[in-house]
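DATA SHEET
Item: assembly model
Revision: 1
Owner: S.N.
Input lines:
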Amino acid sequence: MPRRTSKPMPSKPPPITMDAVYTAPGYLFRRMQQIAVSIFVEECSAFDLTPVQYAALVAIHTHPGIDATRLSAVIAFDRSTLGNVIERLESKALIERKPSREDKRVKLLHLTKAGAIVLRDIMSSVERAQVRMLQPLKPADRKTLLALLTQLVDLNNEASRVPLRAEDALEHLGKSN
Amino acid sequence: MPRRTSKPMPSKPPPITMDAVYTAPGYLFRRMQQIAVSIFVEECSAFDLTPVQYAALVAIHTHPGIDATRLSAVIAFDRSTLGNVIERLESKALIERKPSREDKRVKLLHLTKAGAIVLRDIMSSVERAQVRMLQPLKPADRKTLLALLTQLVDLNNEASRVPLRAEDALEHLGKSN
DNA sequence: CCCATATTGTAAGTATACTGTCAATCGGCA
DNA sequence: TGCCGATTGACAGTATACTTACAATATGGG
């Protein structure tokens, strides 16, 4: 009697169903990202800031005088993408870009007064959005998911096109003007 | 002695650190999505298909003769976004769009021979990509994460701008030509 | 049967998120 | 010191992902 496991026969591939999409981690990550952005934008609609713009503001606040390349490493964005984000934040007068005196290539980033105020005021809305994303889960499950996700993102850091390099942010200290 | 919890004093907000970004679920979802796309594209580079295009191919294969609006509900994409995706798949000759006889507004979608072959051949690469995304976790943790994520996406379905409506796919049966 | 209302695909506009490429500039090494 | 390779910000090009708007078409109620 031919045992199924004896020799790897050129067996028929399984039929393709929607499960090939619905149960794939990649699909779930994409869906969850869509949902997260949607919730964020809704909660923060009064501030007209996207999640990406918020992250950039926080990073510039935390690292005043950082340049665009280092900023991209600190929040794990592509340098090209970040260029546009910075432009929009500048046109909304939330940040300033001033040329460095020591390196004529770089432009140093600072929050404006308006930027600091917006950042301070948006925090509670952001917090509400973050809570809402996980709300449907039981509290213990929220912790579990967050822990596993943190772990997975960290361990997969190098697989990303733009790995997070939080340490890079420190390099600009001591240089700047 | 003034108890901290007695009356909601106008207390100082906590200082803003990068943790306001790094520990936020929304940020982790975005990072994980970046990583997932990166791994998918890498594993499937031989096929020149994006994750979104792959999902569309599977759905059209599973629901031959579906129209664009119903397709968007089945894979939870925006209708506008899907228009461009369909265009690209058509220009690669992986799908066909033919006008319906009963409703002059709709265009019915079918895989071409080439599309069916690409879909069949890409499956193993897709599978490898999905495995790689979760690889860094222990097997038990992979199951936990996947279960929680599936649950969360499902429970948050309505929070998304384009909720998944898998049942919609059935409506086109019995109508079509 | 006719018209108000809804649906369908498409298009324009904005915002990520990448890939390249490029000129200006910088830094280290011969 | 002078040049070569690396870095920096900018730009062009592609692909999601959303918004609003619109014309063509369908449908149901009066």
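QC remark: Chain B touches chain A through 64 residues (CB under 8 Å).
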